[in-house]
Amino acid sequence: MRVLIAVLAAVAFLAGCNTVQGVGKDVQGAGEAVENAAK
Which family does it belong to (predicted)? Predict the structure, then answer.
């Protein structure tokens, strides 16, 4: 599970977004993916 979270976090930060808002959306998306996986 920790590996999945680390991979999702890395993808979120390496997705190529250059704005703070874009990073926030990527992190939110990754968080939702982890939440859905936990269900």
Answer: Belongs to the EcnA/EcnB lipoprotein family.
Counting the structural domains of the chain, the total is 1
Domain extent, residue 7, equals: 1-29
The two tokens of residue 17 are 């977004």
State the DSSP code for 17. Answer: -
pLDDT value at residue 11: 75
Tell me the one-letter amino acid at 14. L
What tokens were used for 39? 């269900």
Residue 37 confidence (pLDDT) above 70: yes
Q: Which residues have C-beta within 8 Å of that of residue 28, sequence separation ≥ 6?
A: none
